[in-house]
Amino acid sequence: MAIDWDAMILGPVMGIFGEGVPVDRASWPTYTPLGLAPFQLPDAVFDRAYADITIDGEGSEVTTRKPCLGVRTSLFLQREPLQDDRVFVPSVPGTFIVKDVRLDGHGHAKLILMGPIP
Q1: How far out from the chain centre does Cα 55 lie?
Q2: Where are the alpha helices (DSSP H) in 5-115?
Q3: Exposed, middle or buried: residue 79 (CB in 10 Å: 0-12, 13-18, 19+)?
Q4: What angle do CA 100, 40, 87 make, to 5 degrees?
Q5: Sorting pLDDT into bands at 50, 70 and 90, what band is 1?
Q6: CB count in 10 Å sphere of residue 114
Q7: C-alpha separations of 11 from 26, 51, 64, 70 in Å
Q8: Global pTM?
Q9: Where are the domains of the chain?
Q10: How does the average pLDDT of the chain come out, rounded?
Q11: How far apart (Å, rounded) are the C-alpha atoms in residues 47 and 45?
């Protein structure tokens, strides 16, 4: 018996931790695939993940934060998310460019973002 990760795990968990308020669609992130119609992501999880960056050969490091967005791939009906797509996150508020897409193979994707852009 296969596990329906989206229905049993991802949907309920992301519904709790996701952006916005269920009854207020304007509070949900809006995803805009290049050349396609925008759509809303009612339970995407926005975060600014920490990353250590080595800045010289001596091992000196700087800590920075990279914006990222966790999404359920089942919400992408037109196609999977791709690099250079855009997403507006109302809680920031700001529009970000998708820099990288990391699929987990179970219906979830971590979008590494750049921005916010003006």
Answers
A1: 27
A2: 5, 11-17
A3: exposed
A4: 35
A5: low
A6: 14
A7: 20, 27, 30, 12
A8: 0.83
A9: 5-117
A10: 90
A11: 7
The length of the chain in residues reads 118
DSSP line for 78-107: SS---TT-EEEETTTTEEEEEEEEEE-SSS
Tens digit of each residue's pLDDT (9 = 90 or more) over 85-97: 999 999 999 999 9
The letter for the amino acid at 45 is V
Give every CB contact of residue 76 below 8 A, 6+ residues apart in sequence. Answer: 31
Q: Cβ distance 90 to 26 under 8 Å?
A: yes
pLDDT, mean of residues 36-49: 93
pLDDT tens-digit map of 50-66: 777 777 777 777 777 88
Rounded percentage of the chain residues whose pLDDT exceeds 90? 57
